[in-house]
Every structure is written in C-alpha cells, then in structure tokens.
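Milestone M4 deliverable, item 7.
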Amino acid sequence: MKTRIPVNAVVIDDDASVCQQLAGWLESASYQVRTFTDPAEGLHHLSAAPSDVALVDLRMPSADGTDVIAALTKDQPGLRILALSAFPDAQQVAEAYQAGAHDLIQKPMSEGEVLQAMQRQLSRIGIAARTEQDFNRLLGARIRTIRKAAGRTQTDLAAGCQITAAQLSQIELGKTATSTWTLARICGNLKIPMHRLFEQL
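Output delivered:
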C-alpha cells in the first residue's frame, strides 16, 4: 500500500445517504473522513479536531449552511470549504462564497466531480501530490511542459544533462525518481530556476 500524506475531511449534511455516499468515495481515495448529519455536532468536532477540507450542505433544516461555513471560516481560516447544494440560486451561491466557501458542488454529485474538487482545494494548500508516485508524475509532467515550451527535444536536453534520452523519458513520465543533481542539470540546460519545477507541486 502506498504511503499517502494524510488528509482529514469532514462532511456536514443532514441527509445520511449523502454522508454515506461521500464517505465511501473519499475513503476509497484514502481520505480520512468524519460525517455529521447534525451541523452542531460537526462544528463541535471541528473545533476539537481541525481538518483540511469540509464539505457543507447549504440547505439543512436545523441550520443555514452559510452560517455553518461562516463559523468554520472564523474558527479555522485555513480550512478549505466545499459548499454542497441542489438547485443553488445566485444569491445563495454568492452568500456561501462570501461566508468563506472556496468551491461549490451541485447535487446530484458524481464521484469524479467530488474528487476533482477535493484535489483543487488541496492544491491551494500545497498538497497537490499525496504520494511519491503522484509527486514524480507531476514533476515529470512539469519538466516535459517546460522542455516543449523551450523547443527542446528529449534527445537534445538529455545530451546536455549527460543522461540518456531513455532516462529523461522515464523522468518525464513519472516512472522514476531523480536526484537533485540531475534536476539541477535539467534546470541549468533549460535556463530556469529550480524552484520553478516545484511551484504548487
């Protein structure tokens, strides 16, 4: 099993079936999840156990989701909040964002939409890659993009870095990790500062 950077997520939705569905999707993607159908219990949990991401329904009978989002934002400014809503109107969406929501997922939801939204929010807090394999893949894609933008071929760049084209190909595909020294040579040949390779990875 891959070692992943742990990410804690909380779901606050009065519909138990929605909580169960979201928990299943998130747990299958290795998120650590707690669900609450009672907003007060969710707020209490988060005050005692800070999390990385919260998914909050905007329409609940016992609490206004916007008020819940505002309370979470005040208590945990760094928390990434996804608002959930069926048939959201423009005013509701505006109020949710003003209260501190960072994204909106419209019900009915798909697993892909939820996981993509989660990944967007994690990227904002510097967790774009949660495993070494993810990191290698993102880093390789970044090198490939910069190389192509510079008009360099794999063969040309590899020769300048004193590695084989096959080795560079494996790096760009994220199939292998690479040393800092090799990355320094790649950056030197591409005439870019090394930090550019790692921005928001």
